[in-house]
Amino acid sequence: MKKRRWISLGLALSVAGCASGSLAGLPNGSAPATAASVLRVGDRAVPADIAAAGIAVANARGNTVTQYRTGLAPTTLPTAGLPNQAVFDRLGDLYVPTPRELMVYRPPSAAPVRVVPGYAAAVAIDRDGRVYVAEEHAIAVYSAGAEARLHSFPTSAGSNTYIAVNPSGSVIAVIDTYAMHGHSATLLTEYANDGRQLVGGIGIGNQLTAVAIGPSDDVYVAGVNFSQPGLPGEIAAFSPGTTTRVRTIQATVRERDGIAFDAKGDLWIADFSASQVRDYGPSGNTPIRTITSGVSQPVGVAFGAGGALYVLNYFTSLSIYAPDASAPWRTLAATHRVDGLAVAPSGPFALVSRGDATVLLYPPAVPSLERTTTGGIAQPWSLAFDRAKNEYVANRANDTVTVYAPGATTPSRTISDGIKNPSAIALDSADDLYVANRGANDVTVYGPQSGAPLRTISQGVNAPLALALDAHDHLYVANSGNDSVTVYGPKQVDPSRTITDGIASPDALAIDAAGDLYVANDKSASVLAFPPGSAVFERRITGGISAPAALAVDPSGNLYVANSANDSVTEYAANSAKLARTLSSGLAHPVALAFDSSGLILVASEGNNAVVGYSMTSTSPAFSITDGIDQPHAIALP
Asked: How many C-beta atoms lie closer than 10 Å to residue 461's C-beta?
């Protein structure tokens, strides 16, 4: 028997941005990403890598709000030899070169999907997925996935230690180890993809420790003066195919992934000796920003798809920073001696432990219960967070919205004036709070610190069940009582547009990055897509839909629908009404949707008291949370 067909997510969730490209500054030296993945909760932009720092779930029957923090338990990947590094490709496969073989893993599996015999000192991957392997006396080139060896070419030295390749694969930079006068030394050599040597014999110190290729294909190489510890090392940049320096920066980098480029093309350096991570911008030799909090003898630096900064501290810890933050939001203590770092576009990351001959593969964030809030909670029905991460909870049983400071379990304030049977809440760009009052047929609006309504919107509102705010603070109200969606300009109380075409008992809304409006119709078991500014629907989606209760759009524009009557979530490709995928394993009466940092879709499954997470490619759950869950009705990300 179907329960409460009129339930709603009560939190508009849409997505801006696009999937990230390959990550710069990781050990493969790929080009920087061209765009960052961003989730939008209401109108709140949340960097994708940071969103999973917390998940809040409203439990209507339990009269609680439970909050979950990511719990990162690694999978240990034993290797046949000492792992030299770890590299993710764009699809999320992990490459681990060792002196005996190249191993390819497909997370979350701990078993390699491919083993390529032979010495492999380092790996780089171009934008087409071709794999470049630094071998003894040669560079080998493989097809995407290392499925087939395409060709190889000899190098000028017997031992190749580090490698980087530009996105097109036309410039390959190799650090070669030479025996000179009874001592080893390292020099930089550049090759074209046909094996022609472009430049040879560049040295800037008595040992080169890192190489990467910048946004303009300039080759960056780091040198350390091990023989003269009192002298700083330096990072030098050369125009491709020349010995002409275009940039020189003093810093001591001790490992191959101590230099990285962010999505803007800024150069970041993990300076081991100074215990600093510095941003030098796209040009210039003076840092524009320095991070010291959470940094201790850093040997690795990398960026996630949402712009999160990962800093590997020598053997001890990994610190993760939100974009533009100077202090870590999380520090992960090392359980092994770790000296290598890689971050995948899809969320997992890997730490290399050469001494233990293992790679620690961490999955996308799996939430664990952090705290339970009961103070002021009475049948919570909707959740939202403002920019300061204050949490707002709409309580149906006592006609209130309670507000909680970050980390608090008792409310800092309670709003009751004008509230009656609240069914949905949302926040605009100024952190004004919008409350849909099903019992009063209106929407009340409150200032950031106000307990009394700034204004009340009643014209056109009839049994409102869902709210959405677009990027310009236009308010959309789903009215189940008169089969309409009314649209209001910023700070307006009269509708600028009323949409009725095809609408039948609407109970969920979403707005994508292009401004398209999606409306879920409970009565007609359909979802309608309206172009920006239009009152006429562009397409009707019906395949697989049964009592739709929530909508969400992922960073690629794919639409997800929670179908409460047939225990499924259905996915539709961007700008399409064709059913692409059905998620049903582990679900019973799904009623709310959200996305975590890696693109995992989170589903509130009311019928079995669970929050279930799925990857973007699998129909089997990646995890299921049941601890603290009791009739979940909404999910929100800080």
From this structure: 25
Cβ atoms 163, 29 nearer than 8 A = yes
The rounded radius of gyration (Å) of the Cα atoms in the chain is: 27
Chain CA centroid to CA 460, Å: 38
Which pLDDT score is estimated for 72? Answer: 66
**pLDDT tens digit string along 511-535?**
998 999 999 999 999 999 999 999 9
Handedness of CA 177, 262, 597, 319 (dihedral sign): positive
Separation between Cα atoms, residue 345 and residue 265, nearest integer Å: 17
Asked whether the beta carbons of 359 and 368 are under 8 A apart, the reply is no
Residue-wise pLDDT for 285-312, tens only, equals: 999 999 999 999 999 999 876 677 899 9
List Cα–Cα distances, 49 to 157, 330, 485, 578, in angstroms. Answer: 40, 12, 33, 30
First to last CA, the chain: 34
When pLDDT is averaged across residues 37-46 and rounded to a whole number, the result is 30
Q: Which of 64, 37, 41, 68 is nearest to 52 (CA)?
A: 68
Which carries the bigger pLDDT value, residue 594 or residue 44? 594
Position 367 scores a pLDDT of 60
The residue type found at 636 is A
Q: What is the pLDDT of residue 258?
A: 93
> What's the pLDDT at 597?
56
Q: Report the C-alpha gap between 120 and 102 in whole angstroms.
A: 6
Q: Across 294-421, where does the E strand assignment appear?
A: 298-303, 309-313, 317-321, 330-333, 340-343, 349-353, 358-362, 366-373, 380-385, 391-395, 400-404, 413-415
Q: Is residue 30 scored above 60 in pLDDT?
A: no
pLDDT confidence band for 75 (50 / 70 / 90): confident
Q: Helix, strand, coil % (nearest 5) of the chain?
A: 0, 50, 50
Mean pLDDT for the stretch of residues 200-213 = 85
Does a cis peptide bond (omega within 30 degrees of 0) precede residue 108?
yes
Q: Where are the beta strands (DSSP E) in 517-578?
A: 517-521, 526-530, 539-541, 548-553, 559-563, 568-572
Q: Which token pair is 47?
A: 């960097």
Other CB atoms within a 10 A radius of the CB of residue 375 amount to 13
269 within 8 A of 253, measured Cβ to Cβ: yes
Tokens coding 625:
């949370």
